Amino acid sequence: MHETVVAQSIIDTILAETKRQNAKPVSVKVSCGVLNAINDEVLRFAVEAIAKDTACEGLKLEIEHKPMQGRCKNCKKIFDVDFHQPSCPDCKTGDFDLEPDAPLVLEQIEFQTE
Fold this sequence. Notes:
Helix content: 25-40%
Order of helices and strands: HEHEEEEE
Structural class: alpha+beta
Number of strands: 6
Mean pLDDT: 94
Strand content: 25-35%
């Protein structure tokens, strides 16, 4: 279960930052590409299970999926690929390369301020 390893890494990182901030984490935002093999439901479940009985218990998890991007071979524009109309929005050519999918990134941790 790939998501369990990812969830453990997220919780470990948050707990380390929690000690530095001396505050309770209330939400976290992660992002990943659309082709990433993360199942949102399974990741949420794994984060919830691993966070139990830690400072992260009750943490809200937001997952953002970054769109796939292409680079036009004609005009070199980088654009979000619409797979229903796969063409450059500027020069309208369908001749483009796909950019690498966005990696899984821990974007933000929000802490409770008292």
